[in-house]
Amino acid sequence: CNKLAELGVDSKVNKGSNIVYFPAPNNKILCEKWMLPISQGITHIVVMPHASMQLLDQFIAELSNCLSIAA
Question: What is the C-alpha separation between 60 and 53, in angstroms, rounded?
């Protein structure tokens, strides 16, 4: 959530949960690549124990790029 906040993305996570909710990006390619489900403009990611920091950083970088293009 901290890295999303640094991008200006309003994200939420329930205490003790591995699911992070945030507004869905307006980029079909990104959503399909990362299999982001969208419902009412909101999406989520499930951060599993096997997800490396490298993978999470890659997602954040691609999301950041998507957001900077849209701005």
Answer: 10
